Amino acid sequence: MTVKQVLTIAGSDSGGGAGIQADIKSMSANGVYAMSVITAITAQNTEEVTDVFELPPSIIAAQIDAIFDDFDVSAVKTGMLSSSAIIQVVVGMLKPQHQAPLIVDPVMIAKSGHALLKPDAVDVLKKELLPLALVVTPNIHEAQQLSGIEIASLADARRAAKVIYQFGCKHVLIKGGHLLAERATDLLYDGRFFNVFRGEFIETPHTHGTGCTFASAIAAHVARGKSVADAVQAAKTYLTEAIRNSLAIGHGKGPTDHFYFLRKD
To answer: Which residues are known catalytic residues?
Structure first.
């Protein structure tokens, strides 16, 4: 049996809860072989991001080249692409690989409040990367920034999804973890229909890396042959349990437990 191979292109989180580290854990936990291209190195823990170093576009391109030269990539997930130059090199490298479905997590800001996407890169993200995406997975704050619509309800999320869809992606998944009126409700739009995924809201501060984890799990299930809607449902079920079993480690917002099922008695 050949294991599906999935690539994440994102930033490194030294605390291990988000970014590349969360992506690899989530993909592995959902049954695929994870490969990585690092775009930036963050000095980060459960409390804050203290520093960011962007890798040169040439080494990012070389990493992507190395992966596609040797592996059979069944899906690609992008996370932190912090500058216009990084987005453009990723787009330039992925366009010839259009057969690999792309899941875009438009990472803009860390839970600690540190900006992870430069303001002048937002337009490049919209115009160049989103048209390549099978699914784009903004949280409420990111959806507001991408659409220009303030989101306080599911009706607002529907309007925002329609705006984001116009950038050229095939599906928009607005993650509703932050939506106070309908907490833990996610909205998927395919240009014609809306699919609402309701879930259990788990009251915990330990949710570091949930966006990375969710998008990576979706990429894993798409790679394994599920439809987008089924991949979202499988990823949501997994994420709910990872949050339920989240780890109270560090002194801030702890991470989800990607391998909670290995620690069951």
So the answer is: 175, 207, 209-212
